[in-house]
Amino acid sequence: MVLEEYQDTLGRIAGSMGILHLLIPAAICLQIVRQGSTENINGAHFMIGGCITLLKMRHGQLLNSIHMVTSSSIGFCMCMFYLSVYTFYDDNRKGLGKLFIKFLTIPLILIAYTFLDQPDRAEKIFGTAVSVMMFCLMSFPLFKIKEVIQQKHTGDLSLLMALMGSVQSTLWFLYSLTLGNYIEMLSRMVFCLMCIPQLVLFCIYPMPKTTSRRGKSAKNE
């Protein structure tokens, strides 16, 4: 296969894009620091990100992919940093800790399973479970499509997340082709296709012009 010659290059680029993708939540942390509290901000996003990157790190180990392990390890550290910032400004730290332990339960059980079963079978079952969890996570924006069409604007969607998600999924799909892992190939292809409807909606419906509205309100005052 021609792509096998570029396996290392594809892995590096895909891993770098994955890290860049996880820089997007940094804007949420900045918002928390500026307002000095976690009001109206849900910390579950950071917990889910930490769990997913932890699972992908173990999956990379099972696939003997240094690029998946490296990018997921950095991504996990980034999510933990975001969560630490959130925890610092949150008033209910005990409740937040209990919630995080609940989130970690399933990933830790799945990771423990991989050490108990045969490596080949463990990789297939573990990879399928991780793909299903990521599918559930990435399907959330699709539930807003009906609302976007009714309101005729894409204010509830994130163009950057959809764009980065589609590029990242495409790169990981090409990389999984070189690995010959069909579960990873199928999941990445599905993730890329899930981003397409969101990108199409951004082409049809413009973003709400908040700046112009603020300008008009200022003039009226």
Automatic annotation (TrEMBL):
Location relative to the cell: Endomembrane system
UniProt superkingdom: Eukaryota
Record's GO cellular component terms: endomembrane system; membrane
Topological relation to the membrane, as annotated: Multi-pass membrane protein
GO molecular function, one term: sugar transmembrane transporter activity
Keywords: Membrane, Repeat, Sugar transport, Transmembrane, Transmembrane helix, Transport
Membrane spanning stretches: 12-33, 69-89, 96-113, 125-145, 157-175, 187-207
UniProt name for this protein: Sugar transporter SWEET
